[in-house]
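User: Hey, my collaborator sent me this sequence without any context and asked if I could get a structure. I don't really work with proteins. Can you help?
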Amino acid sequence: MGHIKKKRPRRGSLAYWPRKRVRDVRGHVGTWSQLKDLKAPKLLGFCGYKAGMTSVNVIDNRPKVPTKGEEINYAVSIVETPPMKPFSVRLYSQTPYGLHLISEAVADNLDKDLLRVLIQVKKRNSTLLELKAKLPQACRVAVLCHMQPRDTGLGKKTPEIFEFPVAGGTLDEQFSYATSILGKDVQFSDVFKAGEFVDAHGVTKGKGFQGMIQRFGIKLERHKAEKGQRHRSTMGPITPPRVGWWIAQSGQMGLHQRTEFNRQILKVADVKTMNPNPVSGISHYGLVRGNYVLIAGSVPGAKKRLITFTHPARPRKNLHWQAPEIVALSRRSQQG
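Assistant: No problem. I've predicted the 3D structure and written it out in structure-token form, which is a compact way to encode the shape of the chain:
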């Protein structure tokens, strides 16, 4: 038998272009989902470190599925979520060119680890009283937070810094909430609850420089092709004399910014209530030592990579916003 060509659509959406490496391996958020029906103010996102994947057995509680009430198996992602600590409150005003930073107020006692990143406090900083006087000029209240990787099993000390908007209630209530959490620990359960759906922003695994077959999934050439099998046939016509951007070519694959939409939070737990660690630890991560969440399905990125969770930007109408009951959590060894 000769070689059978696959009849399927090519891989690689042209919506993602150019395919080059990101400058920072953190999940950045382009647009924040503003919750208009939110009454009490809270942060619009949270961050965690991807530990790995496992499986759970749950009782299916979706109302319109054939397996309702039966025990089914889910693949889940384990994301360790140590508490974040806000250290600065910011006010923004709306201008014709976008948001403009009015001023910010930094907490008095900064963590020792934060000084590894934040070398000095800029002179534009104000006190909380001065910042509150500028509140009528503002349209958005935001909080600068830093991670606490010492509380995890990563073995690192340098924290990452993120900015999260505050939504819900009036602008005065948002400012009061932001000042109340300044310098205090914020838990994942303060932002999200079990059963909610979130968007997971992260950076995918890096694959390096790959050919066009691996990168875009185009067809192999016939076995008697002169230049070889693993390349595309033509790059376009003679006229116009240029190569289109849509032509599949070799290049960087992986390490791109991606977002997984509508991932359900199955469980918000800690190691004491439900231990997710195998006896030998999670492969290429170690031990989850504190708080963590179980996310249905996969999230982008390699292990130990930072994932940013936000409220869903485009939630579907048929989503069931109630977490199923977890019967068993697999803790089998991941080392064969």
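In plain terms: The chain is about 5% helix and 30% strand. You can pass these tokens on to your collaborator as they are.
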